[in-house]
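<instruction>
Derive structure tokens from the sequence
<data>
Labelled lines for chain and fold:
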Amino acid sequence: MSPTANEREILTYDLFGNAIKELAQEIVDDYRPDLILSIARGGLLIGGALGYAMGVKNVSVINVEFYTGIGETLEAPVMLPPTPEAVDLSGMKVLIADDVADSGKTLELVQQYCADTVVESRTAVIYHKSRSIIEPDYAWKKTDQWIDFPWSSFPVVTPSGTPNGGDAA
């Protein structure tokens, strides 16, 4: 069952810009990572925006699948190829960036992946939910509502004239 409009946290692109500036300031006042590791897909924009805001040019991506729909997940998060080689992370201070710490399982998986090779890893998210098994090191806002992100709140774009992206006959 989908949440109604009044049960949702709405993030606009303007608000996202402010959130990134505030989050970046909190991070740089405390931590200077060598690398930002963005968890795709939700963390792609967060990691890139934090990289620009913090002057960190070394931004990488790790692909993790967990959510399959609104409130629907796999049993456990799964890393998808390509994944950064652990040796490439060796000796680095890493900031793991994602959009939300919902269950926290995705952040936990990526932290475990990094644990044996990095000097230190910390986590940064826009939103932190109280049920998360991970307490992010940096979070812009706490909420327990469903979040509408500006990049994922609209239907997938399909070719003009085809209702579901199929071939027009």
About this structure: The chain has a mean pLDDT of 86.
